[in-house]
Write a structure and sequence with these properties.
The chain is built from 1 helix and no strands. The chain is mainly α. The protein is rod-shaped, with a radius of gyration of 30 Å. The model has no long low-confidence stretch (mean pLDDT 87).
């Protein structure tokens, strides 16, 4: 391969390397955003499930007491 082609190939590889580095940074940033969003959604889900669990326990206590709520 002559030097002209070698130089072009090296420039192309440098460009590809730079682009891959940028893409890697962008993907890492996007992954971090998605992880934060997942954590927020999991906290909300946990809160909802905990609220439903408390409601179910309350309903269950009322059923046992004949419609009246039992105090612990």
């Amino acid at each position: 391969m002559d030097s002209k082609h070698t130089e072009k190939v090296l420039k192309h590889f440098d460009y590809q390397s730079e682009m891959l580095t940028r893409i890697q940074r962008l993907m890492a940033d996007e992954l971090r955003k998605l992880q934060v969003e997942e954590e927020m959604l999991m906290r909300k889900l946990h809160k909802i499930l905990a609220t439903q669990d408390v409601t179910k326990k309350s309903d269950h206590k009322e059923d046992k007491s004949g419609g009246r709520r039992q105090d612990d």
